[in-house]
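Marked as duplicate of an earlier ticket. Keeping the data here for the record.
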Amino acid sequence: MGDVLGGLSVTIGILAAIYNRSHTGLGQVVDVALVDSAVASLEIINMIYLVENRLPQRIGNRYESVYPYDSFQAKDDLVIIGAGNDKLFGLFAKHIGRPELVDHPDYAKTRDRVKNHVAVKQFVEEWTKTKTVTEIVDELLAIGVPAAPIYNIAQVVADPHIGGAREMFVDIVHPKAGPIKITGSHIKLSDTKSSIRTPSPALGEHNEEVLSTMLGMSKEEIEALKQEGVL
């Protein structure tokens, strides 16, 4: 994750520096560390410690600051339900036939449900265990409550939205590996469609092109580097 987040962070930094240069004419160094990017992604975990001086512990899939926002046991597998505020909890409680929970002093507010998350999970699973993941997800999405299955990677690749409509897995032909499927671009642009333009290059495949076009080296100079074992 540090590699991916670091790449995203440095891209944002470069774009910010270019934008600044267009106004000031001055360039600058963009300094991004993998560990900094990972730390920034910890989100509320940092602030729980810095503000409350409380050391967050491992809590499984449960979210620290809202509940029910967790994985729950369905009839056939685990399912994610994200009733992350009072309105969503109200919709959920009424849907499962427990409208009295909306005004109950133990569950009325987010902080109450977080404090009593064990009891909340119990009555949520009394409902989820009677239904399949597909039934739960379809029902809750229909009333506006976030819910989702927990995919393995095969299901992610096969998902018609992710792999199909969003084109997150694309087919290419590699000169050595042959036809393969790889991860597509997660950034979509309206006018300049992002795509995988070429397979990954072989080691040193573009040495001569880079040295001649970008560094202005002659064929003789490049050949000399080869003779010296540099290339």
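See parent ticket for discussion. The mean pLDDT is 93.
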